Amino acid sequence: MKKNRNHLVVDEYAAGIVRTIFQMKKEGVSQQHIADHLNGMGVLPPTEYKRSCGMNYNNGFRIGENPVWSAATVTRILRNEVYTGMVVQGKFRKINYKVHKLQEIGEDEWIRVPDMHEAVIPQETFDCVQELLERDTRTAPEEEAANLFSGMLRCGDCGQNMVRRATKKNGKKYFYYHCSTYKRGDGCTSHIISEEKLKTAVLGAIRDQVELLVEAETILSAIGNLPEKRIGVKTLDGQLAQLHKEEGRYLGLKAKLYQDMQEHVVSAEEYAQISQRFKKKIEDARQSIAEVEAKRKRILSDARRTRPWIEEFKAFQNIESLDRSVLISLVRGITVYGKDSIKIEFRYEDEMMELLECATDEIPESDGIPAAR
Questions:
Q1: Whole-model pTM above 0.85?
Q2: Which residue pairs from 192-195 have beta carbons closer than 8 angstroms and sit at least 24 positions apart in sequence?
Q3: Rounded to an integer, what distance in angstroms lies between the CA atom of residue 173 and that of residue 5?
Q4: 69-86 per-position pLDDT tens digit
Q5: Which of 216, 193, 206, 209 is nearest to 326 (CA)?
Q6: Residue in 42, 43, 36 with CA at minimum distance from that of residue 17
Q7: Among 2, 50, 131, 187, which is most buried by a count of CB atoms within 10 Å?
Q8: Residue of 307, 335, 333 lying closest to 128 (CA atoms)
């Protein structure tokens, strides 16, 4: 990024390097191997590139006479929110006006302002990579990339990682996964499942999910000019009416209870106990109202109509094979219950459910709209 007086301007060359780094990470390549790749390509590390552009720049990370890319440099780029269009301020503050030393501020107190400049990396990609960095995706010494399911599998019983193992049969190598707790001898069961079976199951699930979403979007596009209540709003309005009715009922009961206490029908102790239950019911109803209203607002908003996340799924409409980048882009995690039982958690599941609910909402036959599967 280059600065002008008012905002940051994208340096297209540097942006291309950043995009490469994020894409390689999504494909499972370790930070060290990404650094090795950039060094092999003769790409200047960030500080040296800025110096080559005539900037008098020093960030404190320059090491040696001939600095090169390192795993730490790659990690700093992968963690940097500025590439999403975010401006982060308030990382440091002066101890007092007499002392020029700065004190670091906790990350939860930083001031973040989104969409302040053109994004180099989509927010979805950035979030995905942050999840990867938190997972156990260690790379075997002889390999430069993590295996396909590294950090993605959890045991359905104990919740721990599934570990990858290999076996040979008739001179051919086969891979399988089993529970890490079981492997350590700390209980649980093996939950063993072959890698090939996993690949087949996940690929099939992705194909089905994409097909379903494309069909749902087609339906919603076809009814885009119909009254808004036809695309799920009517259902939400009914839920809101019921929730407001429930809220009003408990408010009335609470008021009546207070009157009973004033007239000594119930004691102060009984009032306090029963009133607390009514208060909890009212709070639950109000929280549900807020959630339904937010959902209704999303459906009616222009942003909801565009559904940018679905384009990522549609890009894999004709997917023939599974690779790390596809898996990371579409799947948040996989829970293994046994060799024939897994649960796949897709990204954007809440948004998917809204889309499918809208598409399966009652549509008059006279409109000629096909029903969703």
A1: no
A2: 192/339, 193/162, 193/336, 193/338, 193/339, 193/342, 194/339, 195/148, 195/149, 195/164
A3: 60
A4: 999 999 999 999 888 888
A5: 206
A6: 43
A7: 50
A8: 333
